[in-house]
Fold these 2 entries.
Entry 1:
Amino acid sequence: MKFNPSLLLCATLLNVHMMSSLAIAGNNENPAVQRGLTALKNNGAAARLAEGDQFSAREVVKDKDGSEHVRFERKHKGLRVIGGDIVVHMNAAGQSKGQHHTMESALQIDTIAQIDEASAIAMAEQQFAGTRNAPSTADLVIHARGAAMLSYEVLVHGEMHDGSPSEMHYFIDAKRGGIVDKWDGIETSAVTGSAKSLFDGVISVNTDSLSVGGYAMRDLTRGNNYVNNMANRTSGSGSLMTDADNVWGNSSTSDNATIAGDVAYGTLMTWDYYKNTHGRLGIANDGIGSSSKIHFGRNYVNAFWNDACKCMTYGDGDGRTYYPLVAIDVIGHEMSHGVMSSSAALVYSGESGGLNEANSDIFGMLIKFYAKNPSAPGNYLNGEKLLIANTGVTNPTKAFRYMFKPSLDGSSPDCYSSTIGSLDVHLSSGIANHFAYLLAEGAVVPTGFNLTPAQLVCNGNTSLTGIGRDALGKIWYRALTVYMTSNTNYAGARSATLSAAADIYGANTTQTTAVANAWSAVGVN
């Protein structure tokens, strides 16, 4: 785990013995973590503590007023607890202000498996839809995203039929067998068949002068972000993009350096957005840059974030319907998956998976507005620049996702229902996208769409008033980094954003009331 140099994190373990004194293993020099451990001890019932629990600090957030928020990962009897993470909140005096987690109850579970690793792996591999390209592994864990269950987490690596890499996490019941949960560690920006291109005009990018002559697509001013050329391969890391005269591309896909400029620009803008708006230095808030891979595969119509390498990968599209997937909102989307991974780490499945995907859509949209590029103006459409059919259209109405009315894509629901978690995360994300639009803009129909205000809300509240994108971004970012945990659902997201708004603006303010009203307008009450 990378750390923020200004907030030193030590991976110290807290052994919680409910009937005895608190024991802390390791050398921990961070006072905030020590205070968080004490708060856990003193509020054991609320934290769902059980004998055999262990905690390791992953992140510390300190507010201007001195309040502290410490994010802990949980183990139980040495086993990782999936969904057991917790954020402890303290005021400037070190006194507990509460906690955020999703554990249903303290763990009381037999940790002896009844099936072996080989059987668990076989069950997982039978479910894998792609082609495996590496040995699968199994790790005994406690799955606590609902009722706690001893499980094997089986990792199956391979490639899907469209060429996308896959790192499937299957959770196999270690007592009776059978899959209890699953998700892919490769987090994509769109469903199969989408593509993205960049029409940002003539732009400035930061490069690195090489001692042997020429230039490399590497930004030394922003953590050494760099761009590698996969040259249509799907394995390996590719090679660093270089250029002889530092004039990259020709505004056409006929020159493979064109896309390198697109990605460097989008990465630069995303870095600057998080730094200048939220004070975050890079994806992991550690000042370290990331790598981007371009020209992945052949006719590959997708882009993805890979948590294993902390890198982004972009396909070239098919050249007929879709451009290369390097639009600025796509780049912001993928990098925001990385921000998610290093903060709340919302599991990419069920309602938490929809929120994970929406988080990237929301920040991708905010970054597009932040860039203020007249060639790619901000709007509440996702992926509209990816469609070749939109070329030359000033105000396109065709896109892959519509934040103001998700159902315009033909598949996403506008309003929350209890079955939302059973949908693909790219569809269930629409509820949070819808909330974000209404919070920022209110029940106002965007130009070019033949809709009524009543069609934008689920509860008839056409008088809903927005509070602007700046407030939306601040509230959502604080909710993500301070209140959400890996298993947060839509009800939890409502609670998290209300807490965030109250922190920033006050409990009885226009902004906090607007958050409640926007969630109610999409059916999350």
Entry 2:
Amino acid sequence: MTTQPPATRPNRLIHESSPYLLQHAHNPVDWYPWGEEALNRARDEQKLILVSIGYAACHWCHVMERESFEHEQIARVMNERFVCIKVDREERPDVDQVYMDAVQAMGVGGGWPLNVFLTPEAKPFYGGTYFPPRQWFELLQQVSNAYATAEHRPALDKSAEDFARVLRAHDLEKYGVKAATTGLSRLQLQQLLRNLEKGFDTKLGGTSKAPKFAMPVIWRFLLRAHALTGNHVERRQTELTLREMAWGGLYDQVGGGFARYSVDAEWLVPHFEKMLYDNGQLLSLYAEAYQLTQDELYRDVVTQTVGWLRRELLSPEGGFYSSLDADSEGEEGKFYVYTLDELREALGDEAPLAIDYYRCTAVGNWEHGRNILHRRHSETDFAQAHQLTPGVVAELVQGWRAKLLAYRDRRVRPGLDDKILTGWNALALRGLIDAYRAFHQADYLQLALQNANFIEQNLRRAGGGLWRTTKHGRATIPAFLEDYALLIDAYTALYEVTFAEQWLRRAEELTEYVLANFHDPADPLFFYTDATAEALIARKKELFDNVIPGSNSVMAHNLLQLGTLLDRAEWRERAAAMLAATQALAVQEPQHLAGWASLYLSLLAPLAEVAIVGPEAEAFRRELSRHLLPNAVLTGTTTASTLPLLQGRGATGGQTTIYVCYHHACQQPVTSVTEALAQIRAAGLPA
């Protein structure tokens, strides 16, 4: 079956703002965006629905489009027999969640593109991911013929109703998990850690053999576990993983920033798309690892990745775009790889040494004799092997990067997904804040404040809520719990590095909105969708942490942090109730609930309430921030404040004073950061 050229007459997607939907606007398929027009037509005509879900940077989405959705004969069958709906999963994660869960309930592995067949009432009965064109063509006919046959239709309708019932079930019910009846303990934490360690790749880092995702939520938990327990297994595995990711092809050795995942166990061959959500979290991870270890590799990764964000994903107004495509000129990874001749052309006399450093060969380690740049050595080891000093090697590498970047910039660039998503921007904002916290570079904070102000000016809704996305000044789609939870977290962190109370108050307002609009009176966990949002066949709750931390675990952290900073006991109690609901599953399956595992640590260890008062409050805060303090909230002022943790506290004898308190019981006030650190670290985990 040969591929036909695309039709020239645009379909309904031409009026959308999503780059992914616009990519399909000239398909001969009569695509609808998700909405009432398409759903009403299916109900009125009693016509099957085909929902196809993907995102702009998805390589196999592009492949299926070229092979099937641009094919006139295939499109004709799709148009005649189905109401065809295209969904950008990044704009509508609620729709994606429902139908991804359905396909997985069918026993099919998830992924994108996700193609799901629905009854006219939008209930799923069959689906899958990528299909080659002939198989897709045959499947379209088989599904539509089966549904049109009186003999098979009742069975398909029953199957659809059964799947809908499964989708409406609470995730905890599906897993048979009940709320914890026992309290938190160090013994149970050790069991959780042992269960997580079972999945470690102790040779190459990560938690599985292949493919490998960065999974920052796991490694941030392990950094916290090491900081609080002193267990070196967690630290060793985390440092191994961070080093191997930074040395491998997963990391862009020339331009900075990480690809979405590695297809192999060695972190060599990436799936080349670069996502904002990964890189925002990895900024936080590498910055926190630097606070703990002072390893200069981590500083280099943060510096390069911030540079990439600023150079390639920053909008003129201060928002961050969503992603860069894996493909350019129709080839995956073409923008990022080099032949030996290209390296020689770009680097001249320095090419032989750089070729050795980046482990490149004439035959290449990628398609068509090209090389994915990577390393398997420290700069110290490389320097010794070539009779150089580490300082000279560092200077050489910096020069090679500049030359290779300039050479690469002459190429056709990968596609840019230029929509701006609230939750993903919040992850980038938090990453910049954590980078500033670790390195105190003023431009990191300036970029963070620019981004926070962009969010406030462009993504606030009337009534106190948020929008999910904006593009070219047009904000659309009410935000989801993910957006609120991640932004509350970022604003709380922004307060802690500036002591500007406007950010803390904004976090408080957004938390009040979540409590009012995402609350389930029957359960401490929150719904993923706003009470005022479009009703789907199921109103889901996000339980698991994945490549993005689960919205409920982030929200539970927020309630604990803000409940402490603002002295809201009911919020702290809600956080504890949320953990109790998930505790048993978090201990059993920590690789999927690492955000909950971090909350376990935060509730098990005493939470330090650190208040800094006096003229040098900012300098003291800056010095404290050089250290990884996973179980402390920070507040401060140079004058006076109405915040609960600062009331009645002043500078001793005019000297800046630090108060370290636990559950409102304070240690002896001190006037040096060294003394405060000793007080914070003295309160370890219970025996």
